[in-house]
Design goal:
By secondary structure, the protein is α+β, with helices and mostly antiparallel strands. It has a domain of 134 residues. Helix content is 35%, strand content 22%. The chain contains 13 helices and 23 strands. α12 links the parallel β20 and β21. α6 crosses α7, α6 crosses α8 and α7 packs antiparallel against α9. The protein is elongated.
Length: 501
């Protein structure tokens, strides 16, 4: 008998443990990949009489991407040799190198896979509608970026490569980059570099920069040897490119055509530079899915704009090419985020809109709810001091960097969604929800001037959101929300409301 009871207890414990593990797995799948103890302020739902909907971010758990490395035989070239490790990139990045151990005067250099990740954005959900959701017409999500105003003047195209090259600190570095880029674009296995223009201590930063220059199709060398004389590099031997040369040329051509079409549409619909950037932001979110299994294509604009599947590097490169074609200066930012104590690489954009540099992270504004790509705007127009709330900027040492110090291009300020004090919450929120319900838009993003106002806003969302949505439906004839998700970033004082009609 005792043996039978012990067996029952053992089975019960096993069942409880299995249930707990499954619950944890569901939570992990439904969330993004930044430590939510820092990134997300959670609230207990006060109304929960219908099934909840978990919010996930499009860029999730990239740090778990598979990375495999196979070692090549060393080669002898000239008087000294540099050997490499071949890296099979299941994900790819702008920071593309691995430094091996130095032995007997031989140094190893190769491509290194860098992961990209988004913050955890877990929703607090209130799901009990106070009116019958079937009594009003249906609604669909619409873009907030397109306008019917007179189109803005068409600006001269910015050459994205030349603009990036101008960020290099010295002319000799620009010349070295051009020589390497010319060789890469031609698919050369051996690339000569003029003596005295590239130091061996700079090659680790210049090769990732080459990846930034080639934004359309990821053709950066996966592994290479460099030859040197004294302290200067004299040439590169490319062990293997990420794709065949004819495939690279075909993909590059496809991207160039797509970019021209998207920009032509933006030029016809948007009234100013800001609206064009917002148009590109929304276009990428709505037409690209974050996917770890795209290989090197995911790290290029080809993955983002043609196959519709990319990682953060592909998102950022696509945005850079679109802005550049529209005559708007845009560059790439290399950085990190931290997840469970691990540092994970990430890439986003710095964009010069009407003279003000501002951070735009399209990947982190791509939110997935029930397999739908929804636009959020928490990372649209941040300053340096705001972006470092959950991003670490790590510029290459050979580059000059731009400063983003103005809040003038912040989405919430531009769109009247910035709440200065507690007394302004009701008016701003009422107008924002009313506009969303009237158009069928599913996301409402609000930003507060301080933490106290933000905390009050979140309390109101939790307790009163249906008062706002029902009132908006009655006033505009839109459909009342049947349930609502919301999540926030307390460091940014930003709350995102997701309406389910």
């Amino acid at each position: 008998m005792r043996s039978g009871k012990r067996e029952q207890k053992r089975k019960l414990k096993k069942t409880l443990l299995t249930t707990a593990l499954l619950a944890c797995a569901v939570i992990l799948v439904s969330c993004g990949s930044v430590d939510d103890s820092k990134d997300v302020e959670k609230f207990d739902a006060s109304v929960t009489t219908a099934p909840t909907y978990a919010v996930t971010t499009a860029e999730k758990a990239e740090s778990t991407a598979k990375e495999t490395t196979a070692q090549t035989d060393s080669e002898t070239m000239q008087s000294k040799t540099t050997t490499t490790k071949k890296t099979d990139k299941t994900t790819s990045s702008a920071t593309s190198k691995t430094t091996g151990k130095k032995t007997d005067g031989t140094t190893s250099k190769a491509g290194q896979t860098t992961s990209h990740s988004q913050p955890t954005q877990q929703s607090t959900v209130t799901t009990a509608p106070k009116t019958d959701p079937t009594t009003t017409p249906g609604a669909t999500t619409t873009s907030t970026s397109a306008t019917t105003q007179s189109p803005a003047p068409i600006l001269p195209r910015v050459d994205s490569r030349e603009f990036l090259l101008q960020q290099l600190k010295e002319d000799r570095l620009r010349e070295a980059a051009k020589q390497i880029m010319d060789g890469v674009q031609a698919g050369q296995a051996n690339i000569a570099i003029d003596s005295g223009i590239l130091k061996t201590s700079e090659i680790d930063d210049l090769m990732p920069f080459i990846s930034m220059l080639e934004a359309e199709s990821y053709v950066t060398p996966l592994s290479y040897h460099y030859m040197y004389s004294g302290s200067y590099v004299t040439g590169l031997k490319i062990d293997n490119y990420s794709k065949a040369h004819d495939k690279y040329l075909s993909e590059k051509s496809a991207v160039e055509a797509a970019v021209k079409k998207i920009v032509a549409d933006a030029n016809a619909k948007c009234a100013d530079q800001y609206e064009k950037v917002l148009y590109f932001h929304d276009y990428i979110v709505r037409n690209c899915v974050y996917d770890l299994n795209t290989g090197v294509d995911g790290a290029s604009a080809y993955g983002c704009l043609i196959t519709g599947r990319a990682v953060c590097e592909g998102y950022a490169k696509a945005m850079m090419l679109l802005c550049s074609e529209a005559g708007i200066q845009c560059t790439l930012v290399i950085g990190d985020i931290e997840r469970d104590g691990a540092v994970i690489g990430h890439m986003w954009n710095l964009i010069n809109i009407d003279g003000a540099w501002t951070h735009v992270d399209v990947t982190w504004d791509d939110v997935v709810v029930n397999d739908e790509n929804l636009c959020c705007y928490s990372y649209m127009g941040l300053t340096d001091s705001e972006i470092v709330y959950d991003h670490t900027i790590k510029p290459l040492s050979i580059l000059n960097t731009y400063k983003a110090q103005s809040s003038a291009m912040n989405y919430h300020i531009k769109k009247g969604l910035y709440i200065k004090s507690e007394k302004d919450i009701a008016a701003v929120m009422e107008k924002a929800v009313e506009d969303a319900v009237a158009s069928g838009t599913q996301t409402v993003t609000l930003k507060c001037a301080d933490g106290k106002t933000y905390a009050k806003l979140c309390e109101i969302i939790r307790n009163e959101i249906y008062d706002y949505t029902n009132k908006a439906a009655e006033k505009t004839g839109g459909k009342a929300a049947r349930n609502v998700n919301f999540f926030g970033q307390d460091g940014l004082n930003t709350a995102v409301i997701i309406l389910r009609y």
